[in-house]
Amino acid sequence: MSTRRRAQRGARLSAVxxxxxxxxxxxxxxxxxxxxxxxxxAGDADVxxxxxxxxxxxxxxxxxxxxxxxQCSSQGSKDYNASPAYQKAFADLQAAWSxxxxxxVISGLVVGDPLRYPPVYWxxxxxxxxxxxxxxxxxxxxxxxxxxxxxxxxxxxxxxxPPYPAVLIEHGGRGLKEPHWQDAEVLAEAGYxxxxxDVPGGAGGSISPTVAPAEPMALHAARHALDYLLxxxxxxxxxxxxxxxxxxxxxxxxxxxxxSLGAITTSYLAQVDPRxxxxxxxxxxxxxxxxxxxxxxxxxxxxxxxxxxxxxxxPLLPEQLRTPRxxxxxxxxxxxxxxxxxxxxxHHKDEYHRxxxxxxxxxxxxSLRAGQHNETAFARPGNTNQTRYGLAAHHYYTIxxxxxxxxxxxxxQKVDACRRLxxxxxxxxxxxxxxxxxxxxxxxxxxxxxxxxxxxxxxVGGLPVDDRLSFYFASGYHLGxxxxxxxxxxxxxxxxxxxxxx
Length: 502
Known about the structure:
By secondary structure, the protein is an alpha/beta fold. The protein is built from twelve helices and twelve strands. The protein has one domain: Rossmann fold (3-Layer(aba) Sandwich).
């Protein structure tokens, strides 16, 4: 670690010694769109923001740090569950839901971040949105949503012009597309066309084909959804459909993104389908279930005693690996995880990354501090699956990675994206896209005369990267044939020299 970073870390470590777990109570936040200020009761610093102290296993300091980390894994959920703005938006969403086609209700409640409900808060305001049905062979149907940048260039948050790179999003097992509104909206605003789908057989509105496919339904749905996303006049899908937004899609630049089983599935598809240029995986769990439906060798890896999800390129052979991949993994499986008493293997989660690096394929593996398996699957009131900064960190790295991989034909843009990926401090490049549920500021709500105006999304601009990374599991990157490489992002010696990529 560089002398400057060591000094900075020492200052932060001094600050954390005075903090207690009581600091985790949600508090009002700063101005929306600005870098988050550490906040807590009576102006105390946020224990989940400052550097975690070093600790020896078996000591009281270790126990306190681990319990604090577990509490931080639910900090964001505590924010929005206590927020009158979230409660009002959710009630409005619940009332409007029955008129929406292809939507799911689980145990009487709708799902998804209510402050990202596309028809009300996003469509024709921050981007373009449409619900579509994708027909698949044997009378199956996939309920899907398309997101794209605004048509009016003067209103876009990003100056990119069409056609745009394309991104396919698939949810996790027993999941739904609506909890991933935040991912789809963020990417669309950043200059991508996004198709997000419900896999048939789950709780969503999709319909399973009358004849079961030979491959797992998640993979079958992803293949046909990709066909639809890239379809155009003269190149329809197998059922004769054409993407109504085909003119906006650059079929030469394609990515997949998935969470949990969706990450396993879309990462597999990215390696075997030559149309896909890169993959993004959120807490992939290959050691539990691989893309071909086989139970993995470690079924406890996604239980609260198994150390969280582990990645693996299985069932792919090394010679089948060809596609760059960003993986973002969590510290825990859920908030009920058994507190750790010993340090885990720092490479417990990055087997897929190391396999790609061994083939000299560009790869990045980010292990986020305190995160849970379903951090990016925003669902409904009462959930305890989100940190305060996790979603913003996911979006920061995802946008930078896709810009690097899909917009890097312009060298300076590639270097800029590389610098964001390898930065020591998060910049504010992705913060402008954060509009979802966060903390509540009563003064803002009172001033505007609107409870919804009191919502303050959490952002990461200005926060040190190493304090957002897991202190248990390794994070690293391998870019440009190893020209830009780091095997331990929390202990590097300064910013990577991305200019070498020119």
